[in-house]
Design goal:
The chain folds into three domains: 84 residues, no CATH class; 61 residues, SH3 type barrels (Roll); 99 residues, Alpha-Beta Plaits, CATH 3.30.70.100. Helices cover 49% and strands 22% of the residues. The protein contains eight helices and ten strands. The strands form three sheets. It has a five-stranded antiparallel β-sheet. Strands 6-8-7 form a three-stranded antiparallel β-sheet, with helices on one face. A hairpin with a 2-residue loop joins strand 1 and strand 2. The termini are far apart.
Length: 303
């Protein structure tokens, strides 16, 4: 009788769980067809999966609730050993809880996690999946690798988020100008190029920066583009500092250099780009000895 009752409970639990899984899959397919936004559809599908998983656990617990009381001591002893053996797994689950409720990052964010930089494309219970950027590819572009990082890394290493509360970055380009050029004209040209290319980023980022200042203890910072100058031993160095969308750093830098170099070509030598040059000041005298086949030698001094 006990065996038959256990079998009936198991069969009932399996059937109910199968029904739950079937309903969850039908709901996920309906979400994919009805919702056009990829991010919204992803979140809804994740919520359905989590709800189905929780419902399956509750079904199993309710089916064997009468047997759990007698297994309390055994489960406690076994649980201690399992916790030690699976401490990395438990830490990853705890990391998932921290990510879900601590707002470390969400899908679509660009992060650096566990030494890997990329866009978050999935957040699982044990691992976060990233579309990697960088490595052998410059300019924060995708390299094609999909990397899965354990969620436990949120407790072990810093989490760099490029797009959470302030989805903009400060970036710089440096332009060397030769001495004798019209550096004032060069500065005004670079400022105009910055305004044409990056002015819209600065205006769009003001609201996000104000929101970040309200949430965190941040000092006010200059959002508008800025050109500064340093005169060193070789040239006049102009540094252009600007705010840019974190996804458009490479494209923006390319536009800045193209427009500035076009202006340099049109300046008719008012702006001359500099490069590293070396001047030989003096050479020591050289004593050259030239001999013939007979073995005699003759010395010559070269000034």
């Amino acid at each position: 009788m006990i065996g038959e009752r256990w079998f009936v409970q198991l069969a009932t639990a399996v059937i109910v769980i199968a029904v739950i899984v079937a309903i969850a899959r039908l709901l996920q397919r309906g979400v994919s067809r009805r919702l056009e936004s990829g991010a919204t559809a992803y979140r809804v599908r994740k919520f359905i999966s989590f709800t189905a998983f929780l419902a399956a656990i509750l079904v199993l617990l309710s089916a064997y609730s009468d047997r759990l009381a007698g297994l309390t001591v055994a489960l406690g002893v076994a649980g201690a050993g399992i916790a030690f053996a699976l401490q990395e797994v438990i830490a990853s689950v705890a990391g998932w809880v921290a990510v879900a409720f601590g707002r470390f990052y969400s899908t679509g964010d660009r992060v650096q996690l566990g030494g890997i930089k990329g866009d978050v494309i999935d957040i699982g219970v044990l691992r976060t999946t990233l579309m990697e950027v960088g490595q052998w590819v410059d300019g924060d572009l995708y390299n094609g690798r999909i990397v899965r990082v354990a969620n436990s890394f949120v407790f072990k290493e810093p989490v760099f988020n490029y797009s959470a509360d302030y989805p903009f970055l400060w970036d710089e380009i440096k332009v060397p100008i030769r001495y004798g050029s019209d550096w004032q004209y060069a500065t005004s040209v670079l400022e105009q190029v910055l305004e044409d290319v990056c002015g819209d980023f600065a205006r769009r980022s003001e609201a996000a920066w104000s929101h970040a200042r309200e949430r965190y203890a941040l000092e006010d910072a200059r959002i508008k583009p800025l050109v500064t100058m340093v005169a060193n031993d070789n040239w006049i160095e102009l540094t252009a500092r600007y705010v840019v969308d974190y996804r458009q750093r490479r494209v923006t830098k390319d536009k800045l250099f193209r427009q500035f170099l076009t202006a340099v070509d049109a300046s008719k030598d008012r702006i001359r780009m500099a490069s590293a040059t070396f001047e030989v000041v003096n050479l020591p005298r050289l004593n050259l000895k030239m001999g013939d086949v007979t073995g005699s030698a003759e010395s010559h001094y070269v000034p």
